[in-house]
Amino acid sequence: MISIQRPGQPPTDIEYLLIDYEGTLASDGRVHPKAKDKINLLSKRIKIYILAKGEKDKVEERLKNVKAEVLFLTEREASGEKLGLLRKLGPERTVAIGNGMDDAPMLEEAGFSICVIGREGASGETLKRADVVVTDILSGLDFLLKPLRQKATLGK
Length: 156
What we know:
This protein is an alpha/beta fold. Helix content is 37%, strand content 24%.
């Protein structure tokens, strides 16, 4: 479990992490090796789901040593499927990380949400609905791994 402390509020205890694949975890179809390492570290404390719409064989190959469950979504239904999974797991116990328009509803409802503005940019709607905005996936994962970053960003 991971706890996120916001000033004036009880800690948010996190059991699950949902990560969008395209444009968030993967940039131009590639996953940074350090991102894989950070996911594997986080997987010791929380259950991680990677949400992908891409070609199954390629995505699975790129994530073969990552300790996360990869779920493949329907292109046209991705937003609803992401939101459905979040609601099944319990929004209050889940962190969501994304960048695209189809991530916005998931980020809005999650107990805590991170928008990644990477090389591919980010949707303005997703940006507005996130609790925290970072410039790359490594920073987003480090935010969860390093509590001092939470204090620096969320403190008043």
